[in-house]
Structure formats: structure tokens, C-alpha cells
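Worked example 3 (structure in, sequence out).
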């Protein structure tokens, strides 16, 4: 902790100081590092430089760097600049775990990380500072502000598929994001193979938000393992979400015997919390899920149960449970259910994650992680923090990337405003005062996350357009200390990033030139204001 503070203090000291003379230069890296001491003097990095690991356990990082260098281009073919032929990677226990120190000299490039992850992030900075094979001399010292730097993708509404997920993971890694929250089940589709209940994928996987007849789309367990390994090699942990007891429609299509009913608008929205078999079924499912994902976290959703739980008042099994347990409201039945499922999560050796509705269920703050998403309910945020819950900030505004990012855009949510790039960048500090943030409260914030709900994202172009460049602004909001953030400078550093997106075929929104990639149409026009009983309140 002291190390962190020291490093950040240095970062704050340097923050706001423009380079004093022409011999120094600013960084090209997103997210902005804590301490940058770079000179205009430069050298060329030989793409075939020897990569030496002077600590164990860095083979993954060395191979990653080797592959990236092989792809990099070199403008200085005439060889006028001095050429560096040696890169050294090492772990240094004095550096914060995800932090690193990058030393750039023509004689040797050295990356010291607090862990393999820190070395990996040093490599990302090296790659961003290198422009056409040329690097500045100097030194960068860096460590993240938040431990959880998350991005959630909803594949239940529309399925993106493995190739697109890997592209997103590549971009997350490039910008030092480290948590991929995978929303795999919902009303419209179930996207993960469960061997004990095969109809979940084949029947539950059929259909999507724009077409209920789409043939089944889901990940086999083998594909999941492959993606988990791909992410791990990039220091990204994947947190699966199996939403319950609401948003259960796709599962209930496959196994109607566990349905607890719903409403006309959301039929079969809930699991049947009154049947003992439901607990066996869901625990079996979670056992398979837990075995696939090494993450300590298991997300059980828990949101918006009220959209279906009125039906429990008419269900004989739920009524019998309530009579037996002395429960007088369906909310109490929901609490009973979640507490039992939390036991299952614990039995599987994982820690429960849930949306902020968990706060109404009196869960043990020592044993769960809360994602605060209802931006219009800051009292829930305060309750979470005052109650000692470790909390992730992902309020709809500005961190739901299904909201549009420009006033002229039509295909996405707008609720009394939207989520422009500037707001993502300014997060979270610009909101702290309004929320009543105090140092005691902010100590419980583990990190921040953007959520990509895909009702209106039926193509890769749509997902790209809504994700980029907001993901870059999010990464700086999550990683960089407030004192080193500067939106205009961020936009300057985005220039080569936009060019790289063009090379990678990423269909991004260009705020400098909104016509560069026109807004791709979605499958249907979203309502400008939520109806009284929208499925997300
Ligand atoms: C949510 O947006 N229902 C978490």
C-alpha cells in the first residue's frame, strides 16, 4: 500500500507539468501512466531483439512481446538511429503488483513488473510508445488506480462469437483492462453448453433479441476453455454471469419444470424458488460453470426479479415454501432463494457477485461483490459502501455503452441524456460530490466497469461502434490517477489508436469526424423514454 501511495504521489507531482524544454516529450500511452520522463532522443528497437527473462514465470509475456514485435513495422530502415537489440523482463517485489517500471535506453530496454501482470502492462506501454519501430529514451513508472477494470458483454440478446470476443480481449489487454464479465444467459438466449442439461444450449440457445427463430448459438465447453486461456494469457479474468432468479426465460424454455412464471410482458421470467428441484438444477449448472472459469467470482445477476415474481403469489410450490418458512412477501422468497444460491456458490469455492438489488437481500458483505448500476439510485451506492460491501461502479450513466454517445445517434438508449466519451473519461470523480463520496466510502470501491447490453447490437459493427472509443476513455478512467488525466491530451494520444482501429477493421465512432464511420442501423428503434414497466427500471 505504501509503495502505491509513493508511486501515486510521484504521479501527482508530475501531473499537470508540461515538458519544461524541447528535450523532453509527453507519452503516447493510453491509459496515461503515472510518471513519464521521456526525452526526444530516440532509438530503434530491433524487431528481432533478444528477450531475456531474468525472473521465472515470464515465458507467456516474452512470447506475447515476441509476437507483437514481429508484427510491428520499422520506418527507420536506413538505420540512422541507434539500434537496441536487448530487452530484459523481470519481476521486482518492490513494485505494486500490477505496476511496472519501463526503462528505455538504446543499450537495453528493461521492464520490471510487480508481477507477471505488471510486466505485461509494461509491454503494452512499450508497444504504444513505439511509433514505427522508434522509441524515445527515458523512463515510465506506473501502477493502476483500480484493481477491477471491467468490460461486460451481453451475448444473450445477440451472440458475438469467439472471434469477436478475442478481438475485444485483445483491445482490453492493450488498454490494461483486466476483467471481462460475460453475460451468458437471459430472456432471449442461453449461450453456454451445460453437459448435464444439454437443452439449455440447444433449446435455450435458439433465438435472439431481434429474431426468436435464429438457430442455436452458444459456446461449447471446449470453446469456453479456449477463450478463458486466451484471456488469461492477456491477464484478463473472465467472470461468467448466470442470471437468476429473474431473466431466466431462455432456461425455462429448455426446462419448463423449473419455471416460476412471469407476466404477460415477460412470460416465464423467473425460476421456481419453491421447488427443491430448482436448487439441485441450478447448483448442478453452477458446478459445471465454476469448473470452466478459474476466476474466484461467480455472478448470479439477481436484477429486476420484480418483473416476474408477482407470479409466485399464484404458484403452489412457492406458496408452500412461503408457508413452511414463514415468508410473507415474494421479496422474502427472493431473499430465501438468493441466500441458498449464495451457499452453493460458496460450496463451489467461489465468491458471489450480483447487481445492486442484492442490497435488499441482506447478504453478507464479507461474502459478495456488488455491482452498482442504477445511476438514479445513489442511495443504493451509499448503502453498499456504508454497509462495507466491496463495490464495482457501473452506473447506466455514463457506463452503459448501449446508450448512444452522440446527440445525433439514433440507435441506442437515451434517457434524459446519454453517455458521451467525455463523460466516460471524466468518470468517476466528476460524480463523487453528487454521490456524497468520502474517503471511507471510496475505500470500498474495487473498480469500474462498462456494460454492453446488446439488444440493439446484432452485428460486429454495432458492437464496435458502441464500444470504441469509449473503451479507451474507460481504461484511462480505471487506470490513471485523476491528477494525470487530461481530455485534450487523451484525444491527442487517440490519434494513432484511431489509425490502428482502421488497420484492424474495427468500426469505431470517430468524434473528430462523425461521418468517418456512419452510425450503423440497429435491428429496431429503442424507445426514447422507458415505458412504465420497461424490463430495466
Ligand atoms: C441491469 O442492467 N439489469 C443490470
Amino acid at each position: 500500500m505504501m509503495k502505491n501511495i509513493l508511486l501515486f504521489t510521484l504521479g501527482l507531482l508530475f501531473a499537470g507539468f508540461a515538458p519544461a524544454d524541447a528535450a523532453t516529450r509527453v507519452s503516447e500511452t493510453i491509459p496515461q501512466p503515472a510518471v513519464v520522463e521521456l526525452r526526444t532522443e530516440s532509438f530503434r528497437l530491433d524487431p528481432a531483439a533478444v528477450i531475456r527473462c531474468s525472473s521465472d514465470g515470464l515465458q507467456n509475456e516474452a512470447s506475447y512481446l515476441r509476437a507483437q514485435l514481429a508484427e510491428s513495422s520499422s520506418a527507420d530502415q536506413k538505420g540512422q538511429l541507434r539500434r537496441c537489440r536487448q530487452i530484459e523482463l523481470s519481476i521486482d517485489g518492490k513494485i505494486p503488483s500490477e505496476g511496472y517500471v519501463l526503462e528505455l535506453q538504446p543499450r537495453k530496454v528493461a521492464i520490471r513488473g510487480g508481477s507477471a501482470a505488471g510486466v505485461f502492462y509494461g509491454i503494452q506501454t512499450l508497444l504504444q510508445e513505439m511509433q514505427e519501430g522508434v522509441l524515445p529514451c527515458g523512463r515510465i513508472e506506473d501502477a493502476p488506480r483500480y484493481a477491477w477494470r471491467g468490460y461486460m458483454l451481453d451475448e444473450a440478446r445477440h451472440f458475438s462469437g469467439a472471434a469477436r470476443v478475442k478481438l475485444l480481449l485483445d483491445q482490453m489487454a492493450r488498454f490494461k483492462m483486466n476483467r471481462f464479465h460475460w453475460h451468458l444467459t437471459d430472456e432471449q438466449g442461453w449461450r453456454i453448453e451445460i453437459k448435464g442439461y444439454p437443452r439449455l444450449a440447444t433449446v435455450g440457445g435458439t433465438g435472439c433479441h431481434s429474431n426468436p427463430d435464429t438457430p442455436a448459438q452458444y459456446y461449447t465447453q471446449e470453446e469456453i476453455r479456449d477463450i478463458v486461456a486466451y484471456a488469461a494469457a492477456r491477464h484478463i479474468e473472465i467472470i461468467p454471469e448466470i442470471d437468476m432468479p429473474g431473466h431466466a426465460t431462455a432456461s425455462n424454455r429448455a426446462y419448463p419444470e423449473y419455471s416460476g412464471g412471469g407476466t404477460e410482458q415477460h412470460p416465464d421470467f423467473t425460476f421456481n424458488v419453491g421447488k427443491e428441484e430448482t436448487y439441485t438444477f441450478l447448483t448442478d449448472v453452477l458446478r459445471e460453470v465454476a469448473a470452466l472459469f478459474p476466476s474466484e467470482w461467480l455472478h448470479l445477476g439477481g436484477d429486476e426479479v420484480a418483473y416476474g415474481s408477482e407470479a409466485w403469489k399464484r404458484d403452489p410450490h412457492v406458496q408452500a415454501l412461503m408457508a413452511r418458512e414463514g415468508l410473507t412477501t415474494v421479496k422474502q422468497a427472493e431473499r430465501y432463494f438468493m441466500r441458498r444460491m449464495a451457499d452453493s456458490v460458496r460450496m463451489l469455492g467461489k465468491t458471489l457477485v450480483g447487481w445492486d438489488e442484492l442490497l435488499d437481500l441482506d447478504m453478507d458483505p464479507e461474502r459478495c461483490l456488488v455491482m452498482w448500476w442504477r445511476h438514479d439510485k445513489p442511495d443504493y451506492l451509499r448503502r453498499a459502501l456504508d454497509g462495507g460491501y466491496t463495490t464495482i461502479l457501473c452506473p447506466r450513466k455514463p457506463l452503459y455503452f448501449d446508450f448512444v454517445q452522440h446527440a445525433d445517434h439514433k440507435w441506442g438508449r437515451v434517457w434524459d441524456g446519454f453517455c458521451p466519451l467525455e463523460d466516460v473519461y471524466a468518470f468517476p470523480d466528476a460524480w463523487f460530490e453528487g454521490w456524497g463520496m468520502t474517503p471511507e466510502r471510496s475505500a470500498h470501491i474495487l473498480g469500474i466497469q462498462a456494460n454492453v447490453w446488446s439488444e440493439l447490437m446484432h452485428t460486429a459493427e454495432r458492437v464496435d461502434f458502441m464500444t470504441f472509443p469509449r473503451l479507451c476513455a474507460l481504461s484511462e478512467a480505471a487506470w490513471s490517477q485523476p491528477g494525470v488525466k487530461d481530455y485534450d491530451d487523451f484525444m491527442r494520444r487517440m490519434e494513432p489508436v484511431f489509425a490502428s482501429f482502421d488497420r484492424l477493421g474495427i468500426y469505431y465512432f470517430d468524434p473528430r469526424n462523425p461521418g468517418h464511420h456512419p452510425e450503423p442501423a440497429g435491428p429496431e428503434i429503442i424507445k426514447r423514454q422507458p415505458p412504465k414497466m420497461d424490463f430495466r427500471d
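Notes: DSSP finds 18 helices and 16 strands in the chain. The longest helix spans residues 330-347.
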